[in-house]
Amino acid sequence: DLPGALAAYREAVRLSARDPGPHLALGSALAKCGESAAAIEAYREAARVAPELVQAHATLGEELGAGGDW
Length: 70
Prior knowledge:
By secondary structure, this protein is mainly α. It has helices spanning 2-15, 20-32, 36-49, 54-66.
């Protein structure tokens, strides 16, 4: 249930805004829904809160590349 997952990830982001995990999960779910701009925003936030986390930068780059925005 993707809509339910999106709601749960948004709530997790709200509750744990400084944890990159919920941002990454939300970004992944948004990307699966075809909401690239929102996914990029979530990945950027993950990279902002955890600049040392390679996965945040990698997923951001992948989503940007998929849309030709790199």
